[in-house]
Design a protein that fits this description.
This protein has 24 helices and 25 strands. It is of the alpha+beta class and about 750 residues long. The strands form eight sheets. Strands 2, 3, 4, 5, 10, 20 and 21 form a seven-stranded mixed sheet that branches. It has a five-stranded antiparallel sheet with strand order 14-13-25-24-23, sandwiched between helices. Strands 1-8-9 form a three-stranded antiparallel sheet, with no helix packed on it. Helix 14 crosses helix 17 and helix 16 crosses helix 20. The relative contact order is 0.11.
Length: about 750
């Protein structure tokens, strides 16, 4: 036996070694398998992605297409401006991330250093505007309003401004030809968002981060056609972001041009007359409230009666769409969206809803005939009408004896419609109907009310027809609140809430009575009523309103015309339509609008009209004026503006004067008419794609007024204005807001 200790491995040690060996071999096997997967199986894919890390894209935005009026005059186009830009890549190479350079740049541009730094920072979820939403590898615009002197300073002292460039670039411009604004019609642009990029990435029109996208109006509706396709240049860069070569380029494609049915001259007149009518209304006293009318908003639509094409569309208050170009400032944004702004971004021609008042009576007249009442029958136009202890008065309590429905339209006799609606309500079963015919409510739907007209503008609202289904749905949604606040012997509002709590889902007599004259819960938009009155003019066809007339490719070789389309016919027989047409002509010659159309050449240009003054609880009355000739339908409304013919009448008359060249003595000078007939053809497109357009006056309204003054003085218009093909607006003798449609507040029966 030896004294040397035993060095052999026992069983426990051997087991541990085996386990360790297995673990090591497993790890080596896993690592080898992963390497095989990455290098062999997915090698090509990862190699492609890795190479992409060394390629960066620089985008050259496409030139956006122009928006033109019907004669080819640019409403929105592009202009060359001196744009000062900063290269973020170059700035980040500096020790202070370019702060010193940007501070120096701010001094040259007359801006605050922080303002410049904010513009070149990258946007993310936490960074507010202003910031850059495009690629960090392309120049970031700091300003598009640099003067030649400022640009020269930057270029001559390039060593003091590394990473800064000053170059001429194409920038969006809203030209306002002849001072025609059309802001709500045109819309505006702003940078595309991450959400929009993700949503459009698998479509045939994906967005790039540098894209500007239409946010409203025609800019949004026809964004895809106007935007074109941006050019992309790909650069090879090293791991520090330095450019080492150019990979490949995809050429850009400019956007197409949009020709519209808007006539910029008529647009200017419509905007001017609407604004003047609102200013005039603010000088008139409201006898109900004892203060002047607020006239806080308004809209006017001029539409081709036979096609539905919009010749002019104005909304007030308005704004300058150029405020959005190059990024809107916080100050300007507040002006457009603050509580005191009255929301000028809204297009009240398609988004402004109000009770229509008496211009709705054309619907009620058609409904009455459909229900079996004779249009030429005899109906009492009494001073008032009583139902359930409630008295519904006629205007100024006038009693005109027995008259026909046609004469009721001319005089706008409320009590005739009260009786017709109430009698039909009783025939339908009153408060407990079994199988109601609801002629008056069905007629409104058949006239296209309660739904969008389909105009080629975004965000149109539908208005409201308060039929039985609407009442039931509205009652369900508001019952709890009504029952909580209603009081049987409380204030007017509390009493109404109490009644609605008990039976707000039932069609009451008072509901139908108020509805028949365009009051109650009925809501319409100006574009809806323009569509209705255009249909009355053309024989009953309801056209989809359109503004876009044609899309023209940049080279002019492809012209895609936007044809008018109809969405239905008025529910009126030819016989009834002819009688209604005669009655509406009577409104302009011997009815409630006659005082506004004195001296109008009715034999040569038959005028048809309907006045309306709608009551709104807690506010002053809404003025409506709906008209048509064989060529055009014009509808104007002014919120809290007073009476229909009083507030809106003079402005609508003046628009017609300008369209047809009607002089102050009632004669017609077609050489001075702006648009005696709707434009039928497109503007001339040259072989190179450019569109021929006429010279534009600085201000058609001023020319019209000068011509009118010269005519009244027996002289000639000033030199240079005689060939402008324009006519002065003519104010009828009496321009006051006469109380032609005033009635006491109605209480539901």
């Amino acid at each position: 036996m030896t004294n040397i200790p035993e060095t052999g491995r026992n069983t426990r040690v051997q087991t541990r070694l085996v386990v360790i060996q297995i673990l090591v071999l497993s790890l080596l096997g896993t690592l080898g398998g992963r390497l095989w997967y990455l290098q062999i199986r997915q090698g090509d894919e990862y190699a492609k992605e890795a190479s992409g890390n060394h390629v960066q894209q620089v985008v050259q935005p496409a030139t956006r297409g122009s928006i033109l009026d019907a004669r080819g005059v640019a409403l929105a186009d592009n202009e060359t401006r001196l744009v000062v830009s900063a290269s973020r890549t170059e700035l980040l190479k500096m020790r202070d991330d370019g702060k010193a350079v940007l501070t120096k740049l701010a001094g040259v541009l007359g801006m605050q250093p922080q303002e410049v730094m904010d513009k070149v920072r990258l946007c993310d979820a936490k960074t507010p505007q202003p910031c850059w939403n495009g690629s960090p590898y392309q120049p970031i615009p700091v300003t598009d309003e640099a003067t030649p002197k400022q640009a020269l300073q930057i270029r001559e002292r390039a060593e003091d401004f590394p990473g800064i460039t000053a170059e001429p670039m194409a920038v969006r411009r809203y030209a306002a030809p002849g001072k025609s604004n059309a802001a709500q019609v045109l819309g505006y642009l702003s940078p595309v968002t991450d959400e929009e990029i993700q949503k459009a990435q698998d479509t045939d029109s994906p967005f790039l981060r540098s894209d500007q996208v239409g946010r409203s109006g025609l800019e949004r509706q026809y964004d895809k056609a106007l935007r074109g396709k941006a050019g992309v240049t790909r650069y090879e860069v090293d791991n520090l972001g330095r450019v080492i070569g150019e990979a490949e380029s995809d050429p850009g494609k400019p956007g197409s041009n949009l020709v519209t049915s808007i006539d910029s001259r008529v647009q200017r007149v419509a905007e001017y007359e609407l604004n003047e009518a609102m200013k005039a209304a603010r000088k008139e006293m409201d006898r109900n409230t004892g203060r002047t009318y607020e006239a806080d908003a308004g809209a006017v639509v001029v539409m081709e009666a036979k096609t539905g094409r919009v010749v002019a569309m104005a909304s007030n208050p308005t704004y300058d769409p150029n405020a959005w170009v190059g990024g809107i400032s916080a100050k300007d944004y507040k002006k457009l969206t603050g509580k005191d702004s009255n929301y000028p971004l809204l297009n009240r021609a398609i988004q402004g809803q109000a009770a229509p008042g008496s211009i709705f009576k054309v619907v009620s007249s058609a409904a009455a005939v459909e229900a079996g009442y004779d249009f030429d029958g005899s109906y009492a136009c009494s001073s008032s009408y009583s139902v359930g202890g409630q008295v519904f008065k006629n205007f100024e309590s006038a009693d005109n004896g027995s008259i026909s429905i046609g004469r009721a339209l001319e005089l706008s006799c409320d009590t005739v419609y009260y009786r017709l609606a109430h009698e039909q309500w009783k025939k339908d079963g009153g408060m407990n109907p079994k199988n109601p015919k609801d002629y008056f409510y069905k007629a409104a739907h058949e006239f296209g009310l309660g739904k969008e007209t389909g105009i080629d503008l975004p965000n149109e609202v539908s208005g409201r027809v308060p039929d039985r289904k609407w009442k039931q749905d509205y009652w369900k949604a508001n019952k709890d609140a009504w029952c909580k606040t209603g009081k049987k012997d409380g204030s007017y509002v509390e009493k109404i809430a109490y009644e609605n709590c008990l039976e707000g889902n039932k069609m009451r007599a008072g509901d139908s009575i108020n509805y028949s004259i365009g009051q109650g819960d009925t809501l319409v938009t100006p574009i809806q009523m323009a569509t209705v009155y255009a249909a009355l003019s053309n024989g009953g066809t309801m056209w989809d309103p359109t503004i876009g007339k044609a899309i023209v490719s940049p080279d002019g070789k492809r012209v895609e015309e936007i044809k008018p389309t109809a969405h239905g016919k008025l529910p009126i027989s030819k016989t009834t339509l002819a009688k209604m047409d005669d009655a509406l002509a009577g409104v302009a010659t011997r009815g409630t609008a006659a005082w506004r159309f004195g001296g109008w050449p009715q034999d040569e240009i038959p005028m048809h009209a309907k006045t309306g003054t709608a009551e709104v609880y807690g506010k002053q009355t809404t003025s409506w004026f709906a008209t048509y000739t064989k060529d055009y339908a014009i509808v104007m409304t002014i919120s809290q503006g007073g009476t229909g013919s009083g507030a809106s009448g003079p402005a609508v008359r003046n628009i017609y004067n300008a369209l047809y060249g009607v002089q102050s003595d009632g004669s017609i000078d077609r050489k001075k008419a702006l648009l005696p007939q709707p434009a039928k053809s497109l503007p001339k497109i040259k072989a190179d794609g450019t569109i021929t357009s006429p010279k534009v006056s600085k201000d058609p309204v001023k020319d019209l007024q000068s011509q009118q003054k010269a005519a009244e003085e027996g002289g000639n218009a000033p030199a240079g204005q005689q060939d402008q093909n324009q006519q002065a607006t003519v104010n009828p003798p009496d321009t006051g807001n006469r109380q032609t449609r005033r009635r006491k507040r109605r209480v539901r029966a």
